[in-house]
Amino acid sequence: MQQDAIRTEIDPLVLAESWSRDGRRVALATVVETWGSAPRPVGAHLVIDAEGNFEGSVSGGCVEGAVVAEAAEVIETGKPTMLEFGVADETAWRVGLSCGGRIRVYVEPVARSA
Amino acid sequence: MDLQLLARFNAARSGRKPAILVTETGSGAQRLVAPGDITDADPLAAELRARLRSGKSGLVELAGGGQAFLTVSVPPPRIVLIGAVHISQALVPMAQIAGFDVTVVDPRTAFATPERFPDGTLLAEWPADVLEQLSLDPYTALAALTHDPKIDDVPLAAALAAGCFYVGALGSRKTHGKRRERLLEAGVTPDAFDSIDAPIGADIGAASPAEIAVAVLANIIAALRKSPDPKEEGLKGEGGRP
Q1: What is the mean pLDDT of residues B53-74?
Q2: B3 contacts A17? CB cut-off 8 A
Q3: Domains assigned to chain B
Q4: pLDDT tens by residue, B98-136
Q5: Chain B: residue nearest A27 by CA?
Q6: Could you tell me the pTM of the whole model?
Q7: Complex ipTM
Q8: Does residue A18 sit within a domain?
Q9: Which of A13, A49, A57, B171 could link A24 by a cystine bridge, Cβ 3.0 to 4.6 Å?
Q10: In chain B, which among 60-99 make CB contacts under 8 A with chain A?
């Protein structure tokens, strides 16, 4: 049933917490701004671990690969970063959004308090 | 993001408590804001309050330069139906398809049977006895469908007091007139009473229980999704999220 699919959808924020509690090193990516036709809304999340496992979506598949690669760097350095993807961006030709929109994605590490 | 902060945010989300995670995108600094935390001294106070109403996440400019991203979490909207009646039998599956969690309350055990209500939460209790469990809040819609004051009145007054985003009541104009007298006597303000959707449902000429269910669901969605428009104030079925 479709309804069940909606209700059991994995919540990236809950997953980020449980992965981190499991001792995995985790980054969280969030769509913070969109222009034009964007595949995922502002506030959409993707959770990534240091092994490159991920759940959720920031673009419905268009730029996830690039975000996951950047997340490895964020996990390593512990410093958040802002990414931008879209037709106006040179990277768009490599990983671009086929819909022609632009998105900005904030990627931050999830840190265990000392 | 600090894990403890994320854990607090997730706890609020799972507990149906509205919350906003404020992230300064330049520095990465973060804080968690609950509705009760917002003071007028907060430079983002107006923005935070507006976001709690709309439920929309987004970037805001900071007075000192730079930007902050507001991750806004408001509880998923749900519906409480008073009365395990024929309309409710049609309304439960429709509301579930539209994405609402639904709870049906009716103390009459002949009505409130699992056979008649295989899906959703069914409470064969007096509404007054389960008010706490229902935890009515501004992200809840309540429709009273029994016609019976003994069952409908208490949850209607409770829903108005809790600021439910939609409150509707079944009944003829005459029934509703008597209801007005009773509820005003019980302390409900005239303004609050007049916000009740009655005669219940969008004006689509609904006749059968299933059609009335469509009309009720339409007004619940309108109350949830349409911003209050001053031009349309007073029109039946119009309303905004509080």
Answers
A1: 92
A2: yes
A3: 3-73 (no CATH), 78-225 (3.40.50.720)
A4: 989 999 999 999 999 999 999 889 999 999 999 999 989
A5: B1
A6: 0.69
A7: 0.82
A8: yes
A9: A49
A10: 69, 71-72, 96-97, 99
